[in-house]
Amino acid sequence: MQPPWACDRYATLEQRARQIDTVYGLVAQTMRERTTAEWLTLFRKLEIPAAPIRTPDGLFDDPHLNAVGLFETVDSPHGRMRFPGVPTWFSHTPGRVAGPAPELGPIPPRCSRKSARADAKAPDTPSKTGFCVCSARKGALSMGVPVYQRILDLFEAEGVNTLFGIPDPNFVHMFLEADRRGWRWWPRITRRARASWPTRPHA
Question: For each of the chain's 203 residues, which pLDDT tens digit applies?
């Protein structure tokens, strides 16, 4: 018996893309017919790249992630808790999980729309556009993720005075400005950073 998509209607990538929701629905229905282990065995036999989607419990028990020391245990008001650690290691600023996430409630704003040239004593306020702007020399913080001092030093050396952070639930994207011309410094900063930082050791 042929699967329902083994017909001319789904013969090409273009045809499948036009009805991708239907294709995903058929694939999801088929995937329920075997266990994850059975599918992975079949995919390896057919040389199809695949990896399981871990549950939170399975993720924390992953042998590889524990072997490389990705997770950290910190104290919290609710007891000892495990968190994903900083995925990049630096010699002088290795980074660590400083503590648990803040509890629900008012949080003092750490971002300012003021540039480095503005009065450092001015009250910090979040930008109405959703951008968080902080002086590079003050040490930028966006969504609780610190910008490493080494990066700040490189920015300052290139004349970058202000960092713009876009809050995102999964990742903090950092943008630069140096007198509205900061983007042209990014390739040079990247090259210098790569040349000065050590390679992360493998466990």
Answer: 467 777 888 888 899 889 999 988 888 888 899 999 999 999 999 999 998 887 777 788 888 888 888 888 888 888 888 888 877 777 777 777 777 776 665 544 444 444 434 444 444 444 444 444 444 444 444 433 444 455 556 666 666 555 554 443 333 334 444 334 444 444 454 555 445 444 444 33
Q: Could you identify the residue written with the tokens 């910008």? A: 147
Identity of the residue numbered 109 = P
Quote the DSSP letter at residue 61. T
d(CA 71, CA 86): 8
Q: Which helix (H) or strand (E) holds 141?
A: strand 141-142
pTM here is 0.38
Do residues 151 and 119 lie in contact, with contact meaning Cβ atoms separated by under 8 Å?
no
Q: How far is CA 112 from CA 21, 171, 198, in A?
A: 43, 20, 32
- Contact call for residues 143 and 157 (beta carbons, < 8 A): no
Give CA–CA dist 136/46, Å, rounded: 51
